[in-house]
Amino acid sequence: MNTNQCDESSISKILDFILELQKCADNTDIDTTGCDRPCLGPSINNSLIFNTRPITLYSCCTGTLWTMPYNLNGTTGESTVFKISKVDGNCATFEILAPNPETENALIPYVSTNNFFTIDLSCVLAIRCLNDTYTM
Question: What's the domain count of the chain?
Answer without folding.
Answer: 1
